[in-house]
Amino acid sequence: MLRYVPALYHAAPKLCWRSPITRTSWRSRRRPRSGATRSPDASWIKSERWNRLTENEKASFAPICPDCVIELRSTSDTLSELQAKMQEYISNGVLLGWLIDRKNRTVHIYRPHQSPQIIENPSQVNGDPELPGFSLLMAKIG
User: Fold this and answer.
1) Which residues of 119-138 are buried (b: 16+ CB within 10 A; e: fewer)?
2) Which structural domains are found in the chain, ordered by start?
3) What backbone phi and psi angles, to 5 degrees, belong to 101?
4) pLDDT digits (tens, 9 = 90+) for 6-28
């Protein structure tokens, strides 16, 4: 179950509810020659930032770094690869990142200028203060 304040954020791409779906991508500032494009499993962009984009930019993968991202570890993902991806997100301007590792029942929480926080077997994860009022019930993820 997801709870959030719908007027503040647009969601993308796999977690959808009463808000226009927004797909995001952006080029990494750390690897500009690679032309890396990132698209997390879910992301949020503050409405004020989203509304500054043109309609063409909104129509496909928006060229904007999200404010918040979620990555879900799949069976083919290595934890170290996803941890590096999360660090890249934070280095490029993401304010909050959640790496959900269903296999190990942990959530790694990333914020700028902080070491990742690892929560074992949480019943829910709250987005405060970056996503005020948003919480994700982990029973629905497993």
Assistant:
1) eeebeebebeebbeebbbeb
2) 2-140 (3.90.1570.10)
3) -105, 95
4) 444 444 433 323 233 344 555 44
**Which DSSP category does 21 fall into?**
B
How confident is the model over 48-107, as pLDDT tens digits? 888 888 988 887 777 788 899 999 999 999 999 999 999 999 998 999 999 999 989 999
Using CA atoms, how far apart are residues 91 and 69, in angstroms rounded to an integer? 13
Rg over CA atoms, the chain: 15
Pick from 99, 97, 127: nearest CA to 112: 97
CA atoms of 78 and 36, how far apart (whole Å) = 19
End-to-end CA distance of the chain: 12
**How do strand 24-25 and strand 62-63 relate by DSSP bridges?**
parallel
